[in-house]
Amino acid sequence: MLGLLFYGYASGVFSSRKIEQASHESIPFRFLSGHLHPDHDTIASFRRRFLGPIKALFVQVLLMAVEAKVLSLDDISLDGTKIHADASKSKAVSYGHLVTLRAALTAEVDELLRLGEAADGPARPDSVEVSAELDRRRAKLAHLAQAETVLQARAEERYQLEQAGYEAQMAERAARQQQSGRKPSGPVPKPPF
Question: What percentage of residues in the chain have a pLDDT greater than 90?
Answer without folding.
Answer: 23
